[in-house]
Amino acid sequence: MSHLPIKSFLKREKFTLILGFFIFFYILGTYLIFEFDRDKSIYIAFLYLFLFFIYMIFLYSIRDRDYREEIDLLNRKDYEKILELYESPLSKALYKSLEENKRVKEIGEKKRADVKNYLTIWTHQIKSPIFALKLLLKKDEINKIDCEKEIFEIEEYVGNILGYARMNANSTDYVFSKYSLDEIIRSVIRKYSIQFIGKNNRVDFFETKKIILTDAKWFSFLLEQIISNAIKYTHNGSIAIYLEKNELVIEDNGIGIMPEDLPRIFDAGYTGYNGRLEKKSTGLGLNLSKNIGKSLRVTLRCESEPKVGTKIYVNLKNILDESA
C-alpha cells in the first residue's frame, strides 16, 4: 500500500515547520541578545531541534496511517466511513458529490428501465393490429372499413410512442395559449369517429363553452388516450363528455374496472383484470395522460363500477380562463 508522500506532508504541515524553526532560531538568538552561556544555548537549541524532529516523525506516522486508511476506504467505496472519520470540508464535498452522482445514476437507470418496459409492452401490443391487417388483406374480398380500423389502431400506437418520446425529451415543445375546450373535444371526436362507428357506440357531447389556457396538441393527445380507452371497453353503448363544476368528465357505460384495480390504473403497464380479459390494453394510455397532465397543470381521477361503466375526471381548475 502506498504511503503519504513526504512532499505532501511537508506542504500540509508547513505552518508547524515554520513555528518549529522559529523557536529554534529564537533560542539561538537569546545568546546574542541576553549574552547567555554560549554552550548551553547551543545545546538547548539543538536538543529542541532533535525533539522537534522526533515529533515530526511521530506526526508523519499518524498522518500516514490516516492517509493509508482513507485510501483503503476509498478503494472499498466506504464513503460514509470516510465522512465519519475525516469530517473535513474536502471529505464532505466529496461525499456530497458522490451521493449526487449516485442519485443521478439511479434516476438514469430507472428512466432507462421505464423506457425498456414501455417499449416491450408497446412492441408486443402493436403486433395485434398488424397481424389482424395481414389477415384482412389475404381475404378475397377486402373489407375497407375493417382495414381502416386496424390502420387507425396502428397509427394510434405510433402516435403513442412518438408522444412518449417527446414527453421524455429534455425539452418538450409546449406552446401555451387560449383555446376553446369545445373545439378541442370536437376534433378528438372527429378523429375517433371510425372507432365509434365500428363499436356501434353513441357519443353524447355537451358543450362546455369554456376557454382554457393550455397546449392544444398535448391536451388533445391527453383526451385521445382517455377516449380511446373508453371506446376499447364499450360495445353497443354510449360515451358522454360533459363538464361537472371544474372537471371535464369522460363517461362510458362499458365493462368497468374492478375495485382492486382502480388505485393502479394510471401506472405504466398496468392493465388490470378487464384489460387482460379483453387483451386490448397496453396499460400505457392512462399513464401517458397522467404524466402529460402534470405538465399541463391538470390532474386525473377515476370512478368505476364493473358492468356499469367508468368516469375519468380531468380537473381543469388551474387552466380555466375565468375571464371568458
From TrEMBL:
SUPFAM superfamilies: ATPase domain of HSP90 chaperone/DNA topoisomerase II/histidine kinase (SSF55874). Keywords: Cell membrane, Kinase, Membrane, Transferase, Transmembrane, Transmembrane helix, Two-component regulatory system. It comes from the Bacteria. It is a multi-pass membrane protein. GO terms for molecular function: phosphoprotein phosphatase activity; phosphorelay sensor kinase activity. InterPro entries: BphY/WalK/GraS-like, HATPase_C_sf, HATPase_dom, His_kinase_dom. The keyword Protein biosynthesis does not apply. Residues 121-320 form the Histidine kinase domain. It is found in: Cell membrane. The keyword Glycoprotein does not apply. GO terms for cellular component: plasma membrane. Its EC number is 2.7.13.3. PROSITE patterns: HIS_KIN. It catalyses: ATP + protein L-histidine = ADP + protein N-phospho-L-histidine. GO terms for biological process: cellular response to phosphate starvation. Signal peptide: none annotated. The chain crosses the membrane at residues 15-34, 40-60. This is histidine kinase.
